[in-house]
Amino acid sequence: MPKVSLLKLIDEALLPAFLVFGAKLFGLFSASLIFGLEWQAQTSLSYSSTLWVGFGGKEPTLLANDVATLFMFVVISAGFGWVLYRAHYLNISHLHPSQVKKHLLAKNEALLVDTYEIYHQAAVWLSLNWLAFLTASLDFFAGNLSLFVFALSIGVTLTLLFSLATNVSKELKLAR
Predict the structure, then answer these.
(1) Which of 39, 64, 73, 108 is least surrounded, with the fewest CB atoms within 10 Å of its CB?
(2) Cα(126)–Cα(13) distance, integer angstroms
């Protein structure tokens, strides 16, 4: 089993973190365009996960933050879903040698992963999910997020945890 290094962790987490952060920004600006919300750059230190973007009122901020948080959890779910897909269908330890050979001949070897890499990536996505959930919780209790989106974030978080626990239990059964 390879050693975990801080550099490797940072390398594995950069793209997912960029995607989640980008989804938040994309959601904020999409809400602004779709719903015609006026926004301005803000430099105040008051808590709001709308980053450095102000929407000039409680209702516009709530709407923009709801859309941005939904975008963020969609990206997290898709990223974690990709990791689970790879765990089920592209894990070298689960594939028959003829399937591995087929991927190698088709020059798809970059898609193949080992169990260590899968769980490392799952840990990164799960960590980002917990960070997003913490942000959503703070937003909800500060009045900047609707109950529906907060409940959805709870649902996504619990679903990802359950999915990972199910996958780990299957992996443990296969290892025996």
Answers:
(1) 108
(2) 11
One DSSP character per residue, 31-53 reads: HHHHHT---EE----S--TTTTE
Task: Indicate the pLDDT class of residue 44, thresholds 50, 70 and 90.
Answer: low
Task: Please give the model's pTM, rounded to 2 decimal places.
Answer: 0.86
Name the phi and psi angles at 48, rounded to 5.
Answer: -170, 130
> What b/e readout covers 6-26, taking b as 16+ CB neighbours within 10 angstroms?
eeeeeebbeebeebbeebbeb
Encode pLDDT of 47-79 as tens digits: 566 667 777 788 988 899 999 999 999 999 999
Q: How far apart are CA 86 and CA 25, in angstroms?
A: 28
Asked if 35 contacts 63 with a C-beta cutoff of 8 angstroms, the reply is yes
- pLDDT at site 1: 46
- Residue spans per domain, the chain: 6-175
Residue among 160, 132, 137 at smallest CA distance from 150 = 137
User: Of 37 and 96, which is predicted with more confidence?
Assistant: 37
Structure tokens at 129: 């999910």
